[in-house]
Design a protein that fits this description.
The complex is a heterodimer. Chain A is α/β, with parallel strands linked by helices. Chain A is built from 19 helices and 36 strands. In chain A, helix 3 packs across helix 4, helix 6 packs antiparallel against helix 19 and helix 7 packs parallel to helix 16. Chain B is globular, with a radius of gyration of 19 Å. Classes of the chains: A alpha/beta, B mainly alpha.
C-alpha cells in the first residue's frame, strides 16, 4: 500500500487569501492512501521543505503531493526535497492550486476551496500510481556549431572557443561580418562600426579553435543534444583559396559589373569579387550566375591574369560532415520588402526613396559615395531629408505587428549625421512613438532634437514627385493637422524580419518559430537563449529584433549555456520520455508523423510467432531526442506508447478522480 | 483645415529669435504636453501651448502670430513650473506677444480686447505716470464696444472712493516718459490699430 503525504501551501495570501487551506488539508486526509495531510505558510521555503523531509522520514511516506503553485515554478525544488529525504524525485505530484485556482477564482472563495480539494484528489490519484524514474546519461561531443557569421555568431564562436572548445562557424555569404559590417556608426556612442566589427572578424579567422566555413550552408542536422551530426555544403567558390593570395588582379580585370549586395544596390561589384575590402576571408569567389564564362562559355579573363593559377572553374560543391554537441543559431535579420506593399511610398519607383540600410552605405566612408550624403537620382546634396519610421513595423495590415526595436535609435543617429554633415539641411522625422529603452539612448535622442531635427508625430500617407523633389504628405497629430513637406531624400526605417530562409533552417534543425518566423525561445523570461529543442541555442536577431549591445549579450549568454553543457563528458537525460511497448505496436508509424523532434524511428524486430520466426516493423523512441511532449501517445492507435511520468494509466486515474 | 506646408523660408530663424529673446531652450522641447496638461486657460486657447512650442521649432511664424492663445495666456506660469525640460513656457509666450507687436500682427477674436486692454493700460501709464483707472475703464468699454462691461464693479469701487475723477501724478513722471521715448527709439513707432 502506498503511503501518501499531502502538503498544502498558503503561499502567503496568494492561495490562503482565497482558498480555505486547512479545510483542503482536512479533506485530503480522507483520500485513499493518504497518511498525512498538513499545511504551511510557504512550503517552498527552507522550513517548509524541512517539514516535508521530516514527514517523509517520520511517516515513512512513499509518495508526496504538494498543493501549491505551478509545477513550472517549483516542481524541481520539491523533487530535490524528496531526493534529500531519500525518495526517488519522480514520486512527487504537484497540485496547482494557485495559478489554476486561487488566482483564477478570487471572487468565489467557497467554490475555489471546492476546486482546490478536487485538484488535490486528482494529484493523490496520480501519486498512488507513480513509479520511480531514473535519469540515464548521454555522452557529449564538446564541439559547437555556430550558424551565421554576423556579430552574434562571431561573439558566440569566440566565447566558446576562448573557453577551450572547438567551434565550427558556418556563414552563407562569402564573408563574415553580417549586417554590422555594413553599418557606418553605431548608436548611442557613435563608434565607427567597422572599427569594432572588423577586428572581431579577424579574431574569428585567426582563432586556433574556430573552423570557418564561408560561402557554405548547413544542409542536414541529425542526432540530438550532445550528439548532433551535421552536413555542411561548401558552395563552389571557383577559386582555390589555398593558392589565392587575394591580390585583387582578377576582380580588377573582370569585365562584368553587377549591383553589389553589400552596397545594397547603390554600388556595383564584379562577377569575381570580395564583398568589401576588409572581408574575411579576403579572397574572392565567382558569382556563377553573372560570370561570362559560366553564362556564355567565353571570357576566362580572371584565369589568365591570376598570378598563382588559383582560378578553378571545375570546382564543385563539397559536402562536409561534422559531429557537434551543441548548435548556436545566429542567423540574424533582413529588411522587410517594403517595395511590394507600400504603394503610397512609390513601390520603390523613386530612386530618392531609400531604406535605412542603404542610407548606412551612403554615409559610410567606404561606401559608394565615399561617405558623402548624395541623393541617388542625380548625386546632388540633399537640402531636406525626411525619415519615415515604422515602415512595415507596427502595421499588421501591410507588414508586421511588432516593433522592430532598433529603428528609433538608428533614425535618431541618421538625423544627427545629416545635421552634422550637411549644415543648414532640414531633417524631418515622421514617427508614431519614440522608443529609446537602452542605456544612454534617451539622452542621444534628446541631443538629436537639440541638433535641430524636426520630429513630426504621425504617419506618412503619400510620397510623390514634384519636379526633381519629392513631396511627403502626412499628419502631425500633435498639431491635429495634415502636413506636407518637400524632400530631396526620403529614408524609410523598414521593419526587421528574420533572415531569408530562417523558417526552412528551423525545420531542418528541428526548432520552432513564432508567427513571424523568429526562433522561439524555451521560456520568454527564464530561458531566453535556449531553443525548445535541447542542445540548440539562440543568439541575436534570429530570435527577435535586437540592437548590437543586446545581440552581443545574448550571444555571450548562449556561449555560456554551451560551455555549461560542455562542462561534463556526459549529461543526464530527462527520464520523462516516451516509451514504446513493442508487443502492442503494429508499426503504423503515426507517431513518427506527429513527433516534432524527429525522435521516433522505425526498427525491425524479430520474434517467434506460432513456432515461426517473423520480422516486423515497430516504432522506437530515441530518448536523447524525445522532449516528452506526449504527442505520440495521443496518436498511437493501439495505445502502445506511454510517456513515463504521464502514463495512460496515471492520466486516466486523474480523470476518474476529477470526474467520477 | 488646409494642409500645413512645412516648407518655410529660414526655418531656424524663428526658433533662434525666440531662444535669443526669451533666453529659453525651446529646441529641447520633446512634446510631452505637460504645459498643455496644466494650462488654466486652455479652454479658451485656439493653439495649445505644446503646439505653439512645436510650431516655433518648425518655424511656422504666420500660424503662431495668428494665434489668439499668445494673448489669452495669463502668465500663471504653471507650464513653466512643471516643464520637465525646464523651459519657461510663459516667458516664451511673452516673447511671442512682443514679436506680434513688432510684426504688427493684428490680434483677432478673443485676443482683440486683451491686446486693447494691454495698450490702454500702457497708454495711461505713459500719460499719467501711473494707472488712471476711471479713464482706462471708460476708454476700454468704449473701444471694445461693451459700454456697461463691469459697470457694477465700477460703481462699487466709486462708492468706496477707489476711483478718482482726476489722475494723480506721482513723482518721476519725466523718467517714465523717458523710458517710453527710449522704447519708441528702439522699437519704432507703435502700431495704433
Amino acid at each position: 500500500m502506498k503511503r501518501i503525504g499531502v502538503f498544502v501551501c498558503w503561499c502567503g495570501t496568494n492561495i490562503g487569501g482565497v482558498v480555505d487551506v486547512p479545510q483542503v488539508a482536512k479533506a485530503a486526509s480522507s483520500f485513499p492512501g493518504v497518511v498525512l495531510a498538513t499545511d504551511y505558510k510557504y512550503m517552498c521555503s527552507e522550513p517548509g521543505q524541512e517539514l516535508i523531509v521530516q514527514a517523509i522520514r517520520e511517516h515513512r511516506l512513499t509518495r508526496v503531493v504538494v498543493a501549491a503553485c505551478t509545477p513550472r515554478l517549483h516542481e524541481n525544488t520539491f523533487r530535490k526535497t524528496l531526493e534529500r529525504a531519500g525518495l526517488n524525485p519522480y514520486l512527487l505530484e504537484i497540485a496547482n492550486i494557485r495559478e489554476q485556482c486561487a488566482w483564477a477564482h478570487q471572487k468565489q472563495p467557497g467554490r475555489a476551496t471546492e476546486k482546490a480539494i478536487s485538484l488535490v484528489r486528482r494529484a493523490v490519484a496520480k501519486a498512488s500510481r507513480l513509479e520511480p524514474l531514473f535519469a540515464s546519461t548521454i555522452p557529449v561531443t564538446r564541439k559547437a556549431l555556430v550558424i551565421g557569421g554576423g556579430i552574434a555568431g562571431m561573439q558566440a564562436a569566440l566565447d566558446i572557443a576562448d573557453a577551450g572548445h572547438q567551434v565550427i562557424l558556418v556563414e552563407r555569404e562569402p564573408t563574415i561580418g553580417g549586417k554590422m559590417a555594413m553599418l557606418d556608426k553605431t548608436f548611442p556612442t557613435l563608434d565607427c562600426s567597422a572599427c569594432i566589427c572588423t577586428p572581431k572578424m579577424v579574431a574569428v579567422a585567426q582563432h586556433p579553435s574556430i573552423t570557418l566555413y564561408t560561402y557554405a550552408e548547413v544542409e542536414k542536422v541529425e542526432g540530438y543534444v550532445g550528439n548532433f551530426e551535421v552536413t555542411i555544403r561548401q558552395k563552389a567558390r571557383s577559386v582555390d583559396h589555398t593558392k589565392c593570395t587575394g591580390c585583387g588582379t582578377c576582380w580588377e580585370k573582370c569585365p562584368t559589373r553587377v549591383p553589389s549586395e553589400f552596397e545594397q544596390g547603390l554600388g556595383t561589384r564584379k562577377a569575381i569579387y570580395v564583398s568589401f575590402p576588409q572581408a574575411v576571408p579576403n579572397k574572392p569567389v565567382i558569382d556563377r550566375r553573372h560570370c561570362r564564362y559560366f553564362a556564355a562559355g567565353k571570357c576566362r579573363v580572371c584565369e589568365k591574369v591570376c598570378p598563382t593559377g588559383a582560378i578553378d572553374y571545375q570546382q564543385g560543391d563539397q559536402l562536409i560532415k561534422e559531429k557537434v554537441g551543441a548548435i548556436v543559431m545566429a542567423t540574424g535579420y533582413d529588411l522587410f520588402e517594403w517595395e511590394k506593399v507600400y504603394g503610397e511610398y512609390g513601390y520603390g519607383r523613386y530612386p530618392n526613396v531609400i531604406t535605412s540600410l542603404q542610407f548606412e552605405r551612403l554615409i559610410n566612408a567606404s561606401g559608394p559615395t565615399g561617405g558623402k550624403i548624395l541623393r541617388p537620382s542625380d548625386g546632388k546634396e540633399p537640402q531636406s531629408v525626411v525619415f519615415v519610421k515604422c515602415v512595415g513595423s507596427r502595421d499588421p495590415a501591410k507588414g508586421k505587428e511588432y516593433c522592430s526595436r532598433i529603428c528609433c535609435m538608428y533614425t535618431a543617429k541618421h538625423a544627427h549625421q545629416v545635421l552634422e554633415k550637411l549644415p543648414g539641411a532640414r531633417v524631418y522625422v515622421f514617427y508614431m512613438d519614440v522608443r529609446t529603452a537602452g542605456k544612454a539612448y534617451e539622452e542621444f535622442y534628446l541631443r538629436t532634437l537639440q541638433d535641430g531635427a524636426h520630429y513630426i508625430r504621425g504617419r506618412v500617407s503619400k510620397i510623390y514627385p514634384e519636379g526633381d523633389r519629392l513631396i511627403v504628405r502626412g499628419v502631425d497629430t500633435l498639431l491635429g493637422r495634415q502636413v506636407e513637406v518637400g524632400a530631396d531624400l526620403v529614408v524609410l526605417a523598414t521593419a526587421v524580419v528574420p533572415s531569408r530562409g530562417a523558417a526552412e533552417l528551423a525545420r531542418l534543425v528541428g526548432i520552432s518559430c513564432d508567427q513571424n518566423d523568429f526562433y522561439t525561445e524555451a521560456h520568454p523570461k527564464l530561458r531566453p537563449v535556449e531553443a525548445n529543442t535541447a542542445g540548440i541555442f539562440l543568439a541575436g536577431a534570429c530570435q527577435g529584433p535586437k540592437d548590437i549591445p543586446d545581440t552581443v549579450a545574448q550571444a555571450s549568454a548562449a556561449a555560456a549555456k554551451v560551455c555549461a553543457l560542455f562542462s561534463r563528458e556526459e549529461m543526464a537525460a530527462e527520464p520523462t520520455v516516451a516509451q514504446v511497448n513493442q508487443f502492442l505496436c503494429y508499426g503504423c508509424l503515426e507517431c513518427q508523423k506527429v513527433c516534432p523532434y524527429r525522435a521516433i524511428e522505425p526498427v525491425t524486430v524479430s520474434e517467434n510467432a506460432a513456432g515461426k520466426k517473423i520480422e516486423r516493423t515497430v516504432a522506437s523512441v530515441n530518448s536523447g531526442l524525445c522532449q516528452g511532449c506526449g504527442a505520440c501517445t495521443v496518436a498511437c492507435k493501439p495505445g502502445a506508447i506511454n510517456l513515463k511520468g504521464f502514463s495512460n494509466e496515471q492520466v486516466l486515474a486523474e480523470v476518474d478522480a476529477l470526474c467520477l | 483645415m488646409a494642409t500645413l506646408k512645412l516648407d518655410v523660408e529660414n526655418p531656424r530663424e524663428l526658433l533662434e529669435y525666440v531662444q535669443r529673446e526669451s533666453g529659453q531652450p525651446v529646441e529641447k522641447c520633446y512634446q510631452c504636453g505637460k504645459c498643455t496638461a496644466g494650462c488654466t486657460v486652455a479652454f479658451a486657447f485656439d493653439l495649445m501651448p505644446h503646439q505653439i512650442m512645436h510650431m516655433i521649432r518648425l518655424g511656422l511664424r504666420e500660424e503662431i502670430l495668428r494665434a489668439q492663445s499668445i494673448w489669452l495666456c495669463t502668465t500663471c506660469v504653471i507650464c513653466t513650473a512643471r516643464c520637465p525640460q525646464n523651459i519657461d513656457v510663459a516667458a516664451v509666450m511673452e516673447t511671442l506677444r512682443i514679436l506680434a507687436r513688432r510684426q504688427k500682427a493684428l490680434p483677432t477674436g478673443k485676443a482683440r480686447p486683451v491686446a486693447l486692454f494691454n495698450r490702454l493700460f500702457l497708454d495711461s501709464i505713459r500719460k499719467h505716470g501711473r494707472l488712471f483707472e476711471l479713464a482706462t475703464m471708460v476708454l476700454f468699454n468704449l473701444k471694445s464696444g461693451h459700454l456697461f462691461r463691469e459697470a457694477e464693479t465700477g460703481w462699487f469701487m466709486w462708492r468706496k472712493g477707489k476711483l478718482k475723477l482726476t489722475p494723480t501724478r506721482p513723482r518721476g513722471t519725466e523718467e517714465i516718459e523717458r523710458i517710453f521715448a527710449r522704447l519708441q527709439e528702439v522699437e519704432g513707432e507703435e502700431d495704433r490699430r
